[in-house]
User: What shape does this take?
Amino acid sequence: MKKQYVTLTVNGREYRFSIGDGFGQVPPSETLSQTLRKRLDLTGSKESCSEGACGCCTVLMDGKGVTSCMILTVECDGKNIVTIEGLEDPDKGLDPLQQAFIDEYAFQCGYCTPGIIMAAKSLLLENPHPTPEEIKEGMSGNYCRCISHYTVLRAINKVAGNGEDKTAVMHRANDDVENPIPIRPEKYLSPYAIGTQSAHSLND
Ligand code: FES
Ligand code: FES
Assistant: This one.
């Protein structure tokens, strides 16, 4: 029988949506990113490329980073979603990653930052003490147009307990810098989307 409802937990709160094309219903073609941003007003995670290539829309799904623009909401039944808005602990305050990003000025315009923090959270949940190289690989699915990668690496290395990553040096705005993080758009289809593959593909 065709599913009539989709139930998902977002930042600890359960939501139940009727599926369909009627007023107020979630159409089968609606992405998780659209549901989060437009229905739930959780606009922290951004949508930029809308095709799995930049990581701006990364959220946690059952503890793993996924690109929410690549997943249909109807595929999320029973899933536990955490967005940047839900990362702060109500008792303890900011997540250590959020604090490290502030302390290390690990952003410029900030557009990519929520997705980068959620991808870093996913990495640290899987491996609390990644090496600097593992961090670079782990972050290779997230793109920053402002080249904040150096300070991003410094912040994540700090939380991972690696001390100062020598490659994560500060640079001046006009320096001709190379992105220290490899760019791997295919990363968004795996492992970020493992078990949550939608019907979308980069060729759609
Ligand atoms: S907006 Fe989802 S990966 Fe770019
Ligand atoms: S800080 Fe501007 S896109 Fe990353």
Q: What stands out?
A: The longest strand covers residues 5-10. Confidence is low (pLDDT under 50) at residues 169-175, 189-204. The pocket of FE2/S2 (inorganic) cluster (ligand 2) is lined by residues 107-113, 144-146, 148 (CB under 6 Å). Residues 141 and 184 are 5 Å apart (CA to CA).
